[in-house]
Amino acid sequence: MNELLQNLLNLQALQFGDLKEKNVEGRIAELRSKIPLPILGHYDRLLARGKRGVAIVRNQVCSGCHMRVPVAVVANLMRAEDIHICDNCGRYLHLASETENPFLDHLEEARVAEKEKPRKRKVAAHAL
């Protein structure tokens, strides 16, 4: 099951531009051929709505909808025997370590850069 989720994560990263590779269309076609049709169909429905198909679970929280994932689901994800879908947002759940996927580093860098941006302060009309 780890290979299936890894293929889904790589497909998502290529489609959303998180990974830069040569021959992106060829790589996407190769990954899509490795994923079973029912799983790919669910993934494509999420993609058609503008959502990412796979969400990372960190600290028992789905990164797609930011809702808490039940402990039993996290335990099943740790065993990697089956794939699971978030009960709230419908994304496939993946429990990953920080070094497992190269595009996770990119996401973390983007999150840090977003926090470091200077915030614009609104000036109240009565303060003028």
3D structure, described in words:
- This protein is an alpha+beta fold and 128 residues long.
- The chain has a single domain (2-118), classed as Helix Hairpins (Orthogonal Bundle), CATH 1.10.287.
- It is built from five helices and four strands; from the N terminus they run αααββαββα.
- The chain has helices spanning 2-15, 24-34, 37-48, 71-79, 102-116; strands at 54-58, 61-62, 84-85, 92-95.
- A four-stranded mixed β-sheet has the order 2-1-4-3.
- A hairpin with a 2-residue loop joins β1 (54-58) and β2 (61-62).
- The longest helix has 15 residues, at 102-116.
- It is globular.
- The N and C termini lie far apart (60 Å).
User: What is the straight-line distance between the termini?
Assistant: 60 Å
| CATH architecture descriptor text | Orthogonal Bundle
Whole-angstrom Rg: 18 Å
- Overall mean pLDDT stands at 81
CATH class membership: Mainly Alpha
- Strand order within the widest sheet? 2-1-4-3
CATH topology group:
Helix Hairpins
- Tally the helices: what do you get? 5
**Poorly predicted runs of 5 or more residues:** none
**What proportion of the residues form beta strands (DSSP E)?**
5-15%
Q: Overall 3D geometry?
A: globular
Percentage of helical residues?
A: 40-55%
Q: Strand tally, please?
A: 4
- Major sheet: size, sense and barrel closure? 4 strands, mixed
Give the number of domains.
1
State the order of secondary-structure elements, H for helix, E for strand: HHHEEHEEH
Report the structural category: alpha+beta
